[in-house]
Structure formats: structure tokens, C-alpha cells
Specification:
Layout: E1 15-16, H1 19-22, E2 30-31, E3 40-50, E4 53-64, E5 69-76, E6 81-84, E7 90-97, E8 104-108, E9 119-122, E10 125-128, E11 137-143, E12 148-157, H2 163-203
Organism: Oncorhynchus tshawytscha
InterPro entries: Ig-like_fold
Protein name: VHSV-induced protein
């Protein structure tokens, strides 16, 4: 390393070799924000500089494969979907409805006209609030080359009242009906006593 450094244009700002680890014999190269274009074989060598003789000593090779993020989400009506962008290279979010073959652009980085809909970018996420049944489908985050960074298959379910809550609601209604019936019976009894008390006293 020393003062001599070189980075290929496509890797600028994304690679590092920690110098403090070099003195421990660790020549690892760290690649950040991995992209699909990074797929391939990586080989590392050490240059041995001896008097009048330089030669490369092979250290190791790594075959890198890159895959997109894939997940399934099941949310309820009214909840919020958080789509993680994963990388600053994410440029677009497209949507395909469950029963549709068409792709709709929902969000584009830096395009205010496109982003005037329900999706908002918040700290590395694209957020969709107030989910509806029609929001069921596939959401795909694409990079600048149109390659998928992540794919989310979303299911939106209608809100269902908990069975325990239903039971308590029924009990409450029954209690109100019973109380109402008791009050009506008490009122009829009082009316009967008031009407027939003079007649009973006269007979006695």
C-alpha cells in the first residue's frame, strides 16, 4: 500500500484495505455497497521486491455472486409498507398488481412529478402508508441499469375483529338487554301496586 493507491473507476469510494490490518498479515480488501456489476473472480497477490527481482506471490481468489433481496410481506388494511432501498444506486420502484401484467412506476429518485403519489422516501426507505386491498402485488426496487435490487411480494388482508373481542361485545350487549328487561319489569310492578293499592285498602 504505502502512498501508492489505485482504484478502478467502477469501484471508486467502495473499496478499502485497512492498513492497520496489513501489519498483522491481513491483506483483506473490503468491498462496500455491492452491485450486480461486481460479479466475478477476485484474486489477490503480494509483490515481493528483492534486489533486481520483483515477483507476484498469489494469496487467494474469491468468486463473487450477487443476488437481489427477495421477501414476502403480509400486512393489514391501513398499515404501512416500508420498502428498503438497500443502496444509493437504487433509482426506481415499480409495482405489478396481483391480477395484472402491467408494471407501474411508483417512485423515481429525484423525480418530483413521478413521486407526487402515495410513496415517500424516508431515510433509505420508500414508505407506502394507508394500505388498501388493491395494493396487493409485487414491488421491485431497480438500480440505474434496470436490474432488481429487491423484490417484495405484498399481501394485504382486511382487518378482522379478534374472536375474544367479539365474545366480550356479545356479553356486553346481552348484559344491556338483561338490564333493560329488569328495569321494564320493575316499572310494571310499581305501576301495578300504585293502581291497585286503593282498591285493596277499600276491600279491607
Amino acid at each position: 500500500m504505502g502512498a501508492q493507491r489505485w482504484q478502478a473507476t467502477e469501484f471508486e469510494g467502495r473499496v478499502e484495505v485497512p492498513e492497520e490490518k496489513l501489519w498483522q498479515g491481513d491483506c483483506s480488501l473490503i468491498l462496500h455497497d455491492v452491485q450486480f456489476g461486481d460479479v466475478g473472480l477476485y484474486e489477490s497477490f503480494m509483490v515481493v521486491d528483492r534486489a533486481r527481482n520483483k515477483r507476484r506471490v498469489f494469496i487467494q481468489s474469491v468468486q463473487l455472486s450477487v443476488h437481489d433481496h427477495t421477501s414476502e410481506e403480509s400486512l393489514r388494511v391501513g398499515e404501512t409498507l416500508d420498502l428498503k432501498l438497500h443502496t444509493p444506486q437504487a433509482k426506481k420502484v415499480v409495482f405489478q398488481g396481483r391480477n395484472s401484467t402491467e408494471m407501474t412506476v411508483l417512485w423515481m429518485r429525484g423525480e418530483e412529478e413521478v413521486n407526487s403519489g402515495r410513496l415517500k422516501e424516508v431515510k433509505g426507505f420508500v414508505v407506502l402508508k394507508g394500505l388498501k386491498i388493491d395494493d396487493c402485488g409485487t414491488y421491485t426496487v431497480l438500480d440505474s441499469h434496470g436490474l432488481p435490487v429487491s423484490t417484495v411480494h405484498l399481501t394485504v388482508e382486511a382487518y378482522q375483529v379478534d374472536e375474544t373481542q367479539k365474545f366480550h361485545e356479545i356479553q356486553g350487549k346481552q348484559a344491556l338487554i338483561g338490564k333493560s328487561t329488569y328495569n321494564r319489569s320493575s316499572s310494571l310492578l310499581m305501576l301495578f301496586v300504585l293502581l291497585f293499592s286503593p282498591l285493596i285498602q277499600h276491600l279491607l
